[in-house]
Amino acid sequence: MYAAVPALLYHLVWRGLGDRNYFRRWSERFGWYGAPPMEGSLWVHAVSVGEVIAAAPLVDALRARHPDLQLLVTTTTPTGAAQVASRWKGAVRHLYFPFDLPGAAARFLAHARPRIAVVMETEIWPNLFVAIGHARVPLLIVNARLSQRSLRGYQPVLPLIRLALAQVDVVAAQSEADAVRLRAAGAPADRVRVSGNLKYDLRLPEGLEALARERRAAWGSDRPVWIAASTHEGEEAQVLDAHARLRRRFPGLLLLWAPRHPARFAAVAGACTQRGLRTRTRSGDADADARTDCFVIDTIGELMGFYAASDIAFVGGSLQAIGGHNVLEPAALGVPSVVGPHTANFAEATRLLSDAGALIQVADADTLASALVELLADAPRRRAMGEAGRALVERERGALARTLGWIDALLATGKREGNDR
Question: Which of 28, 39, 51, 235 is catalytic?
């Protein structure tokens, strides 16, 4: 890991060329902090925006159950940090996750003094996990998932992965298939449980329906609206081509566009303008109007409010081999969605929504446009898909309660029963 430090620094600089926030707070990446040590914390690690959103119900529940303890949320990305700041407005402490170096891990733990460590999804860091084990801090990986591809990728370093997973008290897998793969990666079989997906337990912000009605009235109540959410650079031309095709059938169509990464905000707005689309942005114009063709959502933490005002959602990261993004957010709002073929990050949720008739999975950009045309022309089908998605999300809730039960048990005992680290 020490040998990898130059590459890690190069990565920060490279990302900083697109998002200057990557140049800030570098000392935290090495475990150096200007503030005094914390008095003890409940620590939740969530890599970026999606994981912070998924962790939000858990963080809120922990705050309510343990008001005397400081909640600490670490992220790896500045967009994750912005999401923490936007969602909790200082009520939750944020630090950047340290590099997996022995010294950085030791300094981080000495500063945070966690009562418990909760890692979202599958972030496995051997040095940090071993340090947590030596400190006898209870450690959970929650909402854990592991694809077959990732399992294959772990093979060259499997002894290190096994060493790290041996420190974990509870591995709460999203599905039985994930549990099987996590055991194969080295997680002790008796510590792996199936919790379900925490993302089904998302809390919808109050007033979304009223906000959606206000927005639709301002945009033109009869206009069809679709949203391209969490798109990546390689999907941008495909979104614009799809929108051009859709506008030939639906001339008044409005595209809401939320790129995944802030570094792409300006480029996406520029690409819309170059195509001759009347373009507005959230940061520059506040909202779309009746004349807007494309509205770029160039802010963090507002996606749900725009999903609620859409007729259909395309969830990006799925036309390329990215693995897809959160299909449960539009489903929870009763908005039908379309995704591409690459959905490994949400494989189980995609399958369940597809089987329920709430989601359409297409093979490529051409079939994406065709599916959007069909749905925009069929309001009864959209309503049926939306109702099916909302019902599925409601039915699958429960991972939060199970996860809280395991956390409470570990907080009460201070360590997993029989775990000598």
Answer: 51
